[in-house]
Amino acid sequence: MSNVLSLFKEDELYIPEARNNRAEILVGDAKRVLVGFPDRTFRCAVTSPPYWGLRDYGVVGQVGAETDVRSYISDLVAIFREVRRTLRDDGTLWLNIGDSYTSGGRTWRDADDKNKGRAMSYRAPTPEGLKPKDLIGVPWRLAFALQDDGWYLRTDIVWNKPNCQPESVKDRPTRSHEYVFLFSKSEKYFYDWAAVTEPALDAKQKSKNRRSVWNINTEPYAGSHFAVYPRQLVRLCVSAGSERDDRVLDPFFGSGTTGVVCNELDRQCTGIELNEDYAALARERLLKRR
């Protein structure tokens, strides 16, 4: 791939000033865009799809706005099936996904002073078999569905957020974690354990194999995208799942964090984003390298 940042919309190609970026942004539905890629294109995929029933991105066909959680899972399985096809045989998928609670019969959600993005004009009904206030268990529903579809589910990683946002609940603990699942395409796959070691408690050891609980603060972001995962989280995934000059995929590019990290680590990156405004935001962010 040439050393440019590209923004595609249908058959049109825009090539702005490169400024040493190695990322391309494709605007469109992830599944449809991925169909155009040949098998075994990417070394790894790192992504965080829209969470079910938590955000309204204002785009027709957006993932996460399905009225049934089973449809949401089904839509993601179909997209990640194309991701698996386009991964190299030794490739991995690093999937960050959060959970949610049933709406309890509410059909909308008011704005939150601490997070304006939480306001929604719709709320999905309580899924069949669940009760009001139930934790839905979306991450594990998706993980098992992907496993059933052919992925190797290698580990669950708990992303602990020491600076998590407070919640006004009094009948349960405040949720301060999300999951990152590591999937592989094959039984044997590339994983650079040495690139992501952590400090050892034993003074005789310099480092140890990284554990499955990652304590990483969320990062503030001044842009209009309100679901940005931190660069340090992505940095660990990209470092473990790829090598220099490898091509990394993010089918839910959002504000472009995966691309920013790939630039830092000398990887190529292909990002797919349905929302044209977010694609433009990512383009600006990549050009500024932040």
What can you tell me about this protein's structure?
It is a single chain. The chain is an alpha/beta fold. It contains 6 helices and 12 strands. The strands form 2 sheets. It has a 10-stranded mixed sheet with strand order 2-1-3-12-11-4-5-7-6-10. Strands 8-9 form a two-stranded antiparallel ribbon. The chain starts with 5 loop residues before the first strand and ends with a helix.
* Spatial strand sequence of the major β-sheet: 2-1-3-12-11-4-5-7-6-10
Shape: globular
What summary fits the major beta sheet? 10 strands, mixed
Helix content: 10-25%
Strands, count: 12
Could you state the order of secondary-structure elements as H and E? EEEHEHEHEEEEEHEHEH
Query: What structural category arises from helix and sheet content?
Result: alpha/beta
Radius of gyration: 19 Å
| Percentage of β-strand residues | 15-25%
Cα separation of the termini: 22 Å
Given as residue ranges, the uncertain stretches (5+ residues, pLDDT < 50) are 1-19
Mean pLDDT reading: 85
Secondary structure tally, helices: 6
Task: Detail the topology: elements first, then pairings.
Elements (H helix, E strand, L loop, with lengths): L5 E4 L2 E3 L8 E5 L2 H5 L7 E6 L21 H18 E11 L40 H11 L3 E9 L16 E8 L13 E2 L7 E2 L4 E3 L15 H11 L5 E4 L6 H8 L3 E6 L2 H13 L2
Parallel strand pairs: 1-3, 3-12, 4-5, 4-11, 6-10, 11-12
Antiparallel strand pairs: 1-2, 5-7, 6-7, 8-9
Helix pairs in contact: 2-3, 4-5
